[in-house]
Specification:
Double Stranded RNA Binding Domain; 512 residues; binds zinc ion; elongated; binds 3-methyl-2-oxobutanoic acid; 16 strands; 3 domains; TIM Barrel
């Protein structure tokens, strides 16, 4: 073990999954496990095998398929659980049994109804029993944050002696604050004589929003394993967020002097996958992976970032696998930013008068909120009113349902007449978009799709907003309808019409 290496123990598939409204299928769990492997987490806690045959099967399948991470199965400190965990992880290249027991007075007296001696006895027996099946055993003192220090030292010493190679000290209820957690972790290091025989781990919950801060504090005290989840999902307010704690150690490496093995370029992809499969949207202002985490909105910030990125950026978007920072063009954006964006789009100062464009830009931004690349370009090249939509929907019929391949038939109207096309897709929206692509001969890459209702009730109007990439251009499309598939098709066609306009703009630019 390298002294400055912090092991990342991911429990998205166990603590994270147990908090979802509906559980993940085995296929979805394997998809997540493979992405965690790609991101190079050290340990994947794949589930709680005794809890259900489905969970057992998932842990077993992950144990067989994942070759480059340790695979852990959770077990209470009882033989039945430990045996199930042992069976489930048996085929892993690197198996681990993770057994746990409540150690705080509250857990001992109210939940387990056992005294201190009985708890130590149970913990030691559990670790010894687990070691019969597996060399790698982790023991967790559940509710460490509220455990009396003297008893904590006693039980940690005993489980290390019994053969636990990792001892986890969870703040199970997210109750402690960093100064207090620091005292707890450093006192364990100072008072447990055989502490150097085990890796000390922490597992912090986020009930008071302190999970990442407490985990980093523990690392400063000597902990070398952090238990965390992608996007911080987990019981109640969740667990320590993997992306935040890993990026904290990377960005503040010179201060913390520790490292992880995580391929941080895989962070964004992991976050999106977990968010999608778990149906847990990421809040826009979430640290590291939120949609706004690299989006600069204030004019002063945009100006600063263009002059020198590090003025307002402590990490690069590329570090987490994003291509570039975003400057949101809104009424708060300054002239410098507009000029810079136009330069990126290929327009030099000779092509426009900055003052004129900036005035028009502000008018548009006041009306629209965000101004996208095609809007900006149209201000430079096209005269007002020259942007009539080329295509419109004359007819749309979509069939979908169980045991039906989603199919869309569409008639698109343009100055050249009517074009009829049909396509199948993964779902009705996908089928409709593919039919539109066929009818217009234009396709774009959808990067964001959001649906919301403009009014309440069953008859609400669905509003679909999409962001699409066409070459270097980011385009925004919107569609409204009481039928959400139609709203999606309208939003998609809105973007396609913008692409047509973009091409006209380019032609006009060449002629100039
Ligand atoms: O929060 C907790 O204490 C746990 C243990 C099982 C490690 O999830
Ligand atoms: Zn937990």
């Amino acid at each position: 073990m390298k002294k400055d290496r912090v092991y990342i123990f991911d429990t998205t598939l166990r603590d994270g999954e147990q908090a979802l409204a509906s559980s993940l299928s085995v296929v979805e769990k394997i998809q997540i496990a493979k992405q965690l492997e790609r991101m190079k987490v050290d340990i994947i806690e794949a589930g709680f095998p005794v809890s259900s045959p489905g969970d057992f099967n998932s842990v077993q399948t992950i144990a067989k398929e994942i070759k480059n991470c340790t695979i852990a199965g959770l077990a209470r400190a009882v033989e039945k659980d430990i045996k199930a965990a042992a069976d489930a992880v048996r085929l892993a290249k690197r198996p681990r049994i993770h057994t746990f027991l409540g150690t705080s007075k509250l857990h001992r007296e109210k939940k387990l109804r056992k005294d201190q001696d009985a708890i130590v006895e149970m913990a030691v027996s559990a670790v010894k029993y687990a070691r019969r099946f597996c060399d790698d055993v982790e023991f967790s003192c559940e509710d460490t944050g509220r455990t009396e220090p003297e008893f904590l030292f006693r039980i940690v010493e005993a489980v290390i002696k019994a053969g636990a190679g990792t001892v986890n000290l969870p703040d199970t209820v997210g109750y402690t604050v960093p100064t207090e957690f620091k005292r707890i972790i450093s006192s364990v290091f100072a008072n447990v004589p055989n502490i150097d025989k085990a890796i000390i781990s922490v597992h912090c919950h986020n009930d008071l929003g302190m999970a990442v801060a407490n985990s980093i504090t523990a690392v400063e005290c000597g902990a070398r394993q952090i238990e965390c989840t992608v996007n911080g999902i987990g019981e109640r307010a969740g667990n320590c967020s993997l992306e935040e704690v890993v990026m904290a150690m990377k960005v503040r490496q010179s201060l913390l002097k520790v490292d992880t093995n995580i391929d941080t370029k895989e962070i964004m992809r992991s976050s999106r996958l977990v968010s999608r499969l778990c149906n847990m949207p990421v809040q826009p202002n979430k640290a590291v992976v939120g949609a706004n985490a690299f989006a600069h909105s204030s004019g002063i910030h945009q100006d600063g970032v263009l002059k020198e990125k590090t003025t307002y950026e402590i990490m690069r978007p590329g570090d987490i696998g994003l291509s570039e920072n975003q400057l949101n063009l809104t009424s708060r954006s300054g002239r410098h930013v507009i000029k810079h964006r136009l330069e990126k789009l290929g327009y030099g100062e000779k092509d426009y008068k900055l003052e004129d464009i900036y005035t028009k830009f502000l008018e548009l931004a006041d009306k629209k909120g965000s101004v996208y690349d095609d809007d900006l370009e149209a201000l430079v090249v096209l005269k007002e009113g020259a942007s009539q939509d080329t295509y419109s929907i004359d007819y749309l019929n979509v069939t979908s349902g169980t045991k039906v391949i989603p199919t869309a038939t569409i008639i698109i109207k343009s100055a050249k007449g009517l074009v009829q096309e049909a396509a199948t897709g993964d779902g009705p929206v996908d089928a409709a978009c593919k039919a539109i692509e066929r009818a217009t001969g234009i396709s774009v890459n959808l990067t964001d799709y959001r649906i919301s209702s403009n009014t309440g009730g069953k008859e609400a109007v669905g509003c679909v907003n999409i962001i699409a990439q066409y070459g270097d251009y980011r385009l925004h499309g919107v569609g409204l309808s009481t039928d959400i598939v139609e709203a999606s098709a309208l939003a998609y066609l809105n973007v396609i019409n913008k692409v047509v306009r973009l091409c006209e703009v380019r032609k006009a630019k060449k002629k100039k």
